[in-house]
Amino acid sequence: MKNLALLLAFVTVVSAQSQEFGQCGGIGWTGPTTCVAGNSCVQLNPYFFQCLPSSSTSGSGGSTSTAPAALPTGTSTASTNTVAKGIGKLYFGSATDNPELPDTAYETILNNTGFFGQITPGNSMKWDATEPEEGVFTFSGGDQIANLARANGQLIRGHNCVWYNQLPSWVANGVFTAAQLTTIIQNHCGTLVSHYAGEISSSYAWDVINEPFNDDGTWRSDVFFNTLGESFVPIALQAARAADPKAKLYINDYNIEFAGPKATAMMSLIQTLKSTNVPVDGVGLQCHFIVGEVPTDLETILQEFVALDVEVAITELDIRMTLPETDALLAQQKTDYQNVIAACKAVAGCVGITIWDYTDKYSWIPGTFPGQGAACPWDANFIRKPAYDGIIAGLTA
Ligand code: G3I
């Protein structure tokens, strides 16, 4: 009996520590905050602290550093947005998110229009944030970012009107007739887009439709497609056009950056919309890539979309790796960033590039892909990485 009690106590102690690559902290986290031996708890973003092998971290538990001092850094003195505009692009931009803004070191770089001429709110214009209850709109988070962009003179990409994810439960779990859901989409897109009308038309574009397809090119099964079929797309686009006639209206997706069924499905959708006079101005290619696996036909795909009489933009670029970072991975990441940027440079209809936050400190990757990260051009301490030089090389070479 005594032995059993000892064993139970031991198990409790063991289970009170997170395993390697397990979560060990962050906003809302109620689990263990220490790591098993050989690991340190590293803050990767406010929502996600992760147990990483101590050899891959430069500090003790709770450090914000993920880049040992010995790793190579960027050396370019050129500024991304300045260079992008100099070669005829509209902007080089970054996603951001409201919880990051109190971080003054972070915001100082975000506000620097030499680096960033455009901002995409990563979460605060999504449906769950803007219409949590039917007909009850809250714009405070989106407004904070729109105000920041306006103060800086930066463009805004509205993100997004209709997406299967981050829906409030009244939409995601609702049972609607086609007529009811049509009205709901029209009201949501119309109210959201008109709230930022002028702001975003001068500020550029809306991702009206986000991620409508499965990877095999079939339509994603969600409340929109299941209730309305493909017609949810024109319903949303027409509502957005009516709400802000000058905003560029985009459809945005991932895994359309290379030839395959999903890219084909997106091209077919654009052709259908164009042939039926539905307003659509652009295709956003998200470009969430993996180091060493960047598609080689990106430029061709960009040209094929542009040939359909739309513009294109790289909307959510990041290039992740399996941690820990090494010199070789960072060198490959630099090459990968250069190749992606060069593809956009080569296509006149590719209007701009947005990275999906600029620093590893606030990247979404570790929270979604445990054991992976270091996807951004700035490290978690705001030091520019070789990837930054790759961006400049892609813009200039
Ligand atoms: O707001 C809640 C907070 O109340 C709670 O305490 C906390 C606990 O986990 O979660 C918070 O919500 C998080 C939300 O971001 C807001 O920060 C979610 O957990 C988290 O899953 C969510 O992640 C976002 C993700 O979309 C959701 O799919 C990322 O930040 C955001 O960068 C990411 O962005 C998407 C694009 O919109 C579309 N393309 C892919 C891209 C990356 O997934």
Automatic annotation (TrEMBL):
SUPFAM superfamilies: (Trans)glycosidases, Cellulose-binding domain. GO terms for biological process: xylan catabolic process. GO terms for molecular function: cellulose binding; endo-1,4-beta-xylanase activity. Keywords: Carbohydrate metabolism, Glycosidase, Hydrolase, Polysaccharide degradation, Secreted, Signal, Xylan degradation. Pathway: Glycan degradation; xylan degradation. Its EC number is 3.2.1.8. One of its GO terms (cellular component) is extracellular region. Residues 77-394 form the GH10 domain. It holds the Pfam family Glyco_hydro_10. Residues 16-52 form the CBM1 domain. It comes from the Eukaryota. It is an enzyme of class 3 (hydrolase). It is found in: Secreted. SMART domains: fCBD, Glyco_10. Residues 1-16 form the signal peptide. It catalyses: Endohydrolysis of (1->4)-beta-D-xylosidic linkages in xylans. Belongs to the glycosyl hydrolase 10 (cellulase F) family. PANTHER family: ENDO-1,4-BETA-XYLANASE, GLYCOSYL HYDROLASE. This is Beta-xylanase. It comes from Collybiopsis luxurians FD-317 M1.
